[in-house]
Amino acid sequence: MDRLRHSFSALQVDAVLVSHLPNIQYLCGFTGSAGLLLVESSRSILFTDSRYTFQAAEEVFGARVHIAKRGLIRALGELLRSRSGRQRIGLAFGNVTVAQKQALDGAAGKRVRWAGDGNAVEKLRAVKDADEIDRMRAAAKLISEVFEDVVPEIRPGVTELDLAAKIEYGIKHRGGSGPSFETIVASGPRSAWAHARPTSKALGKRELVVFDQGAILRGYCSDMTRTVYVGRAPRKVCYLYEAVLQAQQAAKRAIRPGVKAGDVDKAARQSLERLGLAKYFTHSTGHGVGIEIHEAPRIGKGEETVLQENMVVTVEPGVYLEGLGGIRIEDDVVVTPQGAVDLTTAPRDFLEL
Amino acid sequence: MDRLRHSFSALQVDAVLVSHLPNIQYLCGFTGSAGLLLVESSRSILFTDSRYTFQAAEEVFGARVHIAKRGLIRALGELLRSRSGRQRIGLAFGNVTVAQKQALDGAAGKRVRWAGDGNAVEKLRAVKDADEIDRMRAAAKLISEVFEDVVPEIRPGVTELDLAAKIEYGIKHRGGSGPSFETIVASGPRSAWAHARPTSKALGKRELVVFDQGAILRGYCSDMTRTVYVGRAPRKVCYLYEAVLQAQQAAKRAIRPGVKAGDVDKAARQSLERLGLAKYFTHSTGHGVGIEIHEAPRIGKGEETVLQENMVVTVEPGVYLEGLGGIRIEDDVVVTPQGAVDLTTAPRDFLEL
User: Fold this and answer.
1) CB contact under 8 A, B50 and A283
2) How far apart are CA A304 and CA A236, in angstroms?
3) For position A77, what pLDDT does the model report?
4) Residue A272 C-beta-side C-alpha neighbours within 13 Å
5) Is the CB of residue A350 less than 8 Å from the CB of residue A334?
6) How far is B337 from chain A (nearest CA, A)?
7) Whether this model's pTM surpasses 0.95
8) Pick from B8, B72, B87, B346: CA 20 to 30 A from residue A318's CA?
9) Residue-range domains of chain A with CATH
């Protein structure tokens, strides 16, 4: 909260209103599903509703809790209108709907001016502190272990849904609070859908299977993809797997503080381009991860964001060939002066099962 | 899509731009995570990105698919700017961020005027057709069966997280595509948190345990809460359970087409009020459910929305006493001329385990 306050003068604001729940969790610890956090220079107030009376009392630090009886925006507006003088308040316009903004304008009255907050909280969140990195290492280790537990169950006849269910059971069984996104298990031609949901399709013999999974542990996400082959893989598939692994290594080698995110993406893409495979790599190389599964920075084509020490990002190139299937390999890494350090512990060898 | 087009003249628009993903799924079947659907009077176009090339080709009906290479809003803008004449396009301001609206304004140019769409798609979705009700009945039956499978595992020493994991495993094992929200298992004093996440806390003897869970099956959600007692419940707890069950029955009896949603809420609240317990009922009585876990109509204090035949809503009164814990009972019901018909099949008897 104090780091956010230090940005007030650069943003030319008297306060920042935080509406995005992961930002609220980051700043004051509250994990409920309804909240507005007003951060002023000398104090902070969390507005929530009566469902969260007990939870807020237990979780919130660094902010007073106000239980709003007739709507959060209304309660906030009453407070703001009770203040004397004009106020300029920062707001993340990417996290507020047009309808919410209209309600805020109506509730706060004419003495409040809203200004873009320059994604101030997202920028703070992109660089992790030591405690956050510890949590993320544990979350990455947990999902690695869960996947390795499930590997012996991968065989012809088992359904995508049943494997996804086993992975999600494993996450909670090992103490995670749940999956960080809906687990992907996609087999055969369906593995060419980069974001396929698992279905009741059974694994066939001689099929690629993409597993994309993550866990939330103590409030922080992990994200990991492994691709396996059911049976003995043809040479072409082994070649493609090796190409993706090389692209991933190239991207990891490009990572260090001071490098542009777009250059990391370029490293993966050029590695595939040399083998004529870049056209099958149809998404970005990676993304920041933390309280949310997708957060700053984005590791994509032409991204100008400069990597900083202690950012945590995914590195996940892939190739997708219609009919044949897809191959993706993804790890979470932390940016250090020595380069990318893996948080994910599961091996990357091509598994033929 | 045609029902939406019929509302164009009342909305005074030439087209509607749909940005909310569940609305896109409802109208054209697409389930990817990036999409913009432009519904015009004579045709519809879905904008998505290259991750979804294959998936869109397989899923989408009633719309042409445009794979946007450099951003969905940009591709939409190019199309709109190629059109001659002025256009007035409906947009749900509650589903678009201020930043997105600014990008739309920039991309579409000055000949496009945006108008509120009066939540036209949400209103269509609130009333289900026969196929949707069949799916929701199946989703409600599935979660009922999953819960009944888990009941024998409820005993002192098992953790909240492990029970939640078993429920979520059961959902996929029985063919659901996953939980419709993060499963709640909250025991002892934590059960007084209406939206507690499960933790590694073990169930103790003589504790209330609230289970709030739902499944997604063939694209539709169920939502069900049951409260059990570990051990033989004291008379006070049995009394509270009976009070909540009576409040739920009172709310169900108030449901029929033509009744205001607020009057259903009032029926539950008055039933508790007669026992002096209304002050412990700290949330709304229910909400619509369908493609999303929370959709129109809201069943809360003073809600003016009139219930219509074939709406599907939850009925979920509860009482929460700090220190003692919480009790909530929730079913999904469909509104029929004969009153509320339960979709949820799990018994509502108080289980002392």
Assistant:
1) yes
2) 35
3) 96
4) 26
5) no
6) 33
7) no
8) B72
9) 2-125 (3.40.350.10), 127-352 (3.90.230.10)
